[in-house]
Structures are given as C-alpha cells and as structure tokens.
Specification:
heterodimer; A: mainly alpha; Ferritin; 10 helices; B: two-stranded antiparallel sheet; 2 strands; globular
Chain lengths: 250, 317
C-alpha cells in the first residue's frame, strides 16, 4: 500500500468532499432558483469527483475499505482539505468568493494532473476538467456581476475576497506527500501554480472592478490536518449516520 | 367584443378541448380558464420548490456518498420542475416574481405534505415512495390536460418522478433488508407518512368543489376518491414486499369491490395543515421568504450588471 499516494489523493479529494458538503447546505436556499440549481450542480460534480478518488483510495487500501469508509470514518486530523473550502456560507458573496478562489486553483491543478504518471489520477483529472471549467466560468461570472453590480454587492464581494484571501496561500503549500509524488511523476508541484493563479484571479477581479488584496499574513494547516473550528461541525453532519449506526448498509 | 361573440368563442374553445386539441398560450381562452390554470400551475410549481426543503434537510447527513449524490440530483430535478412549471404559468400572463409574492404572502398554496418534518433518513425513502408515488398518480392524469404547456411539463416531470419513486422505494428496501434498527426506522417513517400521503388527493368527492369544471377542462380526469383508491391499491402490495405494516387496522381487501377498504382519514388534521397550522408550515414559508429576502441584493446586482453591460454594448455600436 502506497501511503504517500493515498495521502496525496486525500489532499485533492477532501477539498472536493468538503466544498461539496458546504454547497449541499445551501440547496433550496439560493437567491434565485437558477443559482440554486447551479450550486447543486457544482456540488454534484464535486461529490462525483470525490467518489472517483475515494474508490481509488479504497482499492489501494484493500481489505474492507470502501469509498464510504474513506469518506465517513476518518478522524478530523486525517482529512487533508485546505482551510478555504471549510469556510462557512456567510452570505452569497462569501459563497461565490470561496468558489471562485478555489475553482481557479482547482482548474490549474487538474490541467497538470491529467498528465500524471498515475493513470487513474490522470483519467479522473481529465474527466473533471470539463466540469471544473464550467465552475470557473460560473463563479468568475458571479464575481464580475457582484463586483460591477450595485454599491452594496461591490462592497460585499470585496469584503468576502479580502477575508478569504488569507486562505489562498495554503493552496500552494507543498506537503511531504506532494513532494514525494512530484518526484515520482504522479503529483503536481502546486508551488509552481501560484503565478498563473494570481494572474488569472487578478484579471477577473480587475474586470469586476475589485482590488486584489495584498496580505502579509496567511492561514494554513488544513493540508496537514490542522483545521479551523468549522471542520468539527461539518464532520458532525457528514458522519452522523455512519457513526450512529455503524457497520450497516444504506 | 359583444356577449354573443364571446359566447361563440367559448363554444369553439370548449369544442376544441372536447376534441382533445391542446390550448396554446396565444389562443383565445376564457378568463376563468386562465385564472384557474395560473392558480393550479403556480401551486404546483410552489410545491416543487417548497418540496426541496424537507429533503435538503438530509443532504449533509446522507449515510453514503451514493445516497448523497442521488439525493442532491433528486432535489435538483425538483428545482428544474419548479422552473418549467413557473415558465408554463408565465405563458398565461403572470410573472415569476408575482407568483413568489403570492407564495410568500400565503395567498398561494402548495402541497400540504411538505409541512410535515423529515426527521430520519428513512423519511427520504418514504417521501420518494409515497409522496412522489401519490404525486405521479395525480400527474399522470394531468399529462392529457387541455393546456399545452402544462401537459408537456407533466409528461417530462412524470418521467423523472417515477425514477424518484423507485429510488425512494429502494432506500426503504435496503433498510428493510438491513438490521432491526433500520427496519424499525423504515416502519416509523411509513407510520408517519402514510396518512398525510392519502391526504394528498384532497377532500372526499362529496366535499370537493369545482370538480365539474375541472373535469371538462381535463384538469381532473378522475375524482379525488378514485385517485386515492388507485394509490392505496397500488401501494399495499409494495408495503407487503418490504415487510412493513400499513398503519391502518381497517385496511382490508374487498373481493366484491376488487379494491382495498381503508379507514377514515383524520380530516381535522387535513384542514389544520391546509389552514397553516401543520408541524412545519411556518418553518417552510420562513425558509422561502428568508432565501428570497437575503437574495434581494444579489438579484439587484445581477440586474444592475446586465444593464451596465447592455449600455457598454450600445456605446460600442
């Protein structure tokens, strides 16, 4: 069993799971029926990707492992998602800013991951690129709309971008598993994506008449399993059934 | 237009319906036909979007990834049904915003079934099996209704609903083949959802107004009692396969009628919920109103942005 590969996959897949979970909280409560449906659609894409990654992990782990033991039966410290995706649905501006800041990174990552030496990861990445390209378009369009909409929407989205910016640096952090997988030609060197990311993000922000924040201090920890206070609550919901009724088929 | 002319238009109109022709948005129609359809189609659309709420309550807690994805997809379908039903109603000259206003003010109704709480995972099974099952029986009858856009929406919706119903039944089947705790959870869900599902067909025929007109316009092809009986006859054998007991001691096959006899519905409860005093009426309406109010600044921004873009385009030309 290749533990580094599994840890590496968690670093990618847990983002999709936790962001999908966050978006799932919003279903039925969107500002319009169309955005509600679109948000659900994005959650569906992310959870579909999650399943592909976790099925692969379960295969690597062997034994009784399934996509569900991987998704539901880990301790908080063993989830390796970035802090950004666990941030709460404060309002629609925060939801779109979080989505935008993640999508822009996600696409760059997948564009590289599709050339991974690991065929399964390459195939999942290739399939996901189509979906995530749409996510990028959707969230970037909303950032433009809110930025260049009304005074109120401008203020709200600018605040959300400024607040969430502190979590962006972590996207480019290299964990030990990342480094090992890069050496093996399996993983992506995310530290190399930073420049393109800032360029793409700034371009949309400027079209949206928004300022790209300049920050000195950033928050990180999720990638090594040190999460925010929000994470425990996310997992409480996520794991509720599996923890309350262990070892059952649903 | 003179009264005589209107009368002759009405005669042509009724004849078309009797000949099974569809009425289309631009066709002449009596004002009462228009209003009745706006009321029914918008009520149907509201039911779809309010109906998203009890199920959305379980997305974050779904017990497996496969179930989580299927539940999300189902709720998304319901949002989609809401969209094309609102569009169908809009062809009759009412805007979606006006319909929302009627929902939020309480002037428009939605299906009472969604005023019951979804408190366990088994409820996701029961809602699919019973609630969608009852809805399909109502909706299949409406596929042949006279108003074209409504009839076409029903055809599409029925296809997806029957998938949802099977999905719900399969959730319960899994529980019933599972541990005693899971089976008890399934039985508890059936106990709670059975009677409200029967109420979905509305009051007894003797107490149901407007039926004659609705039958003529093919908004109603069978009576409430006929549809309710059809639902019971179809559902009892399915409950037997699950090994669950329907919570009605009076339920018994009647060989002479070739139908199940069943006990009396608690009509006090029915009217209590219809009049706004069910377990979740306030909670559901509050959720819709809050989503709408919190979304105001977002919709305003989208409008302002669209206008700015249009002005930029005009300047460029």
């Amino acid at each position: 069993m290749n533990e580094s590969l599994i840890q590496y996959i968690f670093g990618i897949a847990d983002n999709a799971l936790i962001l999908g979970q966050r978006l799932g909280e919003l279903c039925g409560h969107g500002p319009t029926l169309e955005t509600d449906i679109a948000g659900t659609n994005i959650a569906l894409d992310l959870l579909g990707q999650t399943r592909s990654y976790y099925q692969y992990v379960a295969q690597l782990q062997g034994g009784v492992a399934t996509e569900d033991t991987v998704a539901f039966l880990r301790l908080e410290r063993d989830y390796k998602n970035v802090l950004l995706v666990e941030q709460p649905n404060t309002d629609f501006a925060y939801v779109m800013a979080r989505q935008f800041l993640f999508d822009q990174f996600h696409l760059l990552l997948l564009e590289k991951l599709q050339f991974s030496q690991d065929e399964t990861l390459a195939a999942i990445a290739k399939k996901s690129i189509k979906e995530v390209s749409y996510h990028v378009r959707f969230s970037s369009d909303w950032v433009r709309r809110l930025g260049d909409g009304t005074d109120e929407s401008h203020e709200r989205i600018q605040e959300a971008i400024c607040h969430l910016w502190q979590f962006t640096e972590e996207l480019f952090e290299m964990t030990q598993a990342d480094s090992e997988m890069v050496v093996q030609g399996i993983g992506v060197d995310v530290s190399q994506l930073k420049k393109a990311y800032h360029q793409n993000v700034s371009e949309v922000l400027s079209e949206a008449t928004l300022k790209t924040p300049v920050l000195e201090f950033f928050q990180k920890g999720g990638k090594t399993g040190r999460h925010s206070e929000h994470m425990g609550y996310i997992l409480t919901d996520l794991q509720y059934m599996q923890r309350t009724f262990p070892n059952m088929t649903w | 237009m003179s009264e005589k002319e209107i009368k002759s238009l009405e005669e042509i109109f009724e004849k078309r319906i009797a000949n099974d022709e569809k009425i289309e948005p631009k066709d002449w129609m009596p004002e009462k036909y228009r209003q009745t359809h706006i009321r029914q189609i918008s009520q149907h659309a509201h039911s779809e979007i309010v109906g998203m709420l009890p199920e959305a309550n379980w997305i974050t807690r779904a017990p497996s990834l496969r179930r989580k994805v299927a539940l999300l997809a189902k709720i998304q379908d319901e949002g989609g049904h809401g969209l094309y039903l609102y569009s169908a109603a809009e062809t009759l000259g009412i805007s979606r915003d006006e319909m929302y206003e009627q929902l939020h003010s309480g002037a428009a109704k939605y299906s009472s079934i969604f005023n019951y709480p979804a408190i366990t995972w088994a409820d996701m099974g029961a809602v699919g099996w019973l609630v969608d099952g009852a809805a399909i029986i109502n909706q299949v009858a409406l596929m042949g209704t006279s108003y074209g856009p409504y009839s076409r929406a029903m055809i599409r919706i029925c296809k997806e609903e029957s998938f949802h119903q099977r999905q719900g039944y399969e959730i319960l089947l899994t529980l019933c083949n599972g541990t005693p705790e899971q089976k008890a959870m399934a039985q508890d869900a059936l106990n709670r959802w059975w009677w409200p599902s029967l109420m979905m067909f509305g009051p007894k025929d003797a107490e149901s107004p407007n039926t004659e007109q609705s039958v003529k316009w093919k908004l109603k092809r069978k009576t409430n009692d006929e549809l309710r009986q059809q639902f019971i006859d179809q559902t009892v054998p399915q409950a037997n396969i699950l090994g669950l007991t329907i919570p009605d001691p009076a339920l018994k096959w009647n060989e002479a009628r070739k139908h199940y006899d069943f006990g009396e519905i608690d009509w006090n409860e029915f009217w209590q919920v219809v009049k706004g005093h069910g377990p979740c009426n306030k909670q559901r309406l509050d959720a819709r109103r809050t989503a709408w109010e919190k979304g105001t600044w977002v919709r305003d921004a989208a409008m302002a942005y669209a206008e700015k873009q249009e002005m930029k385009l005009e300047k460029a030309v």
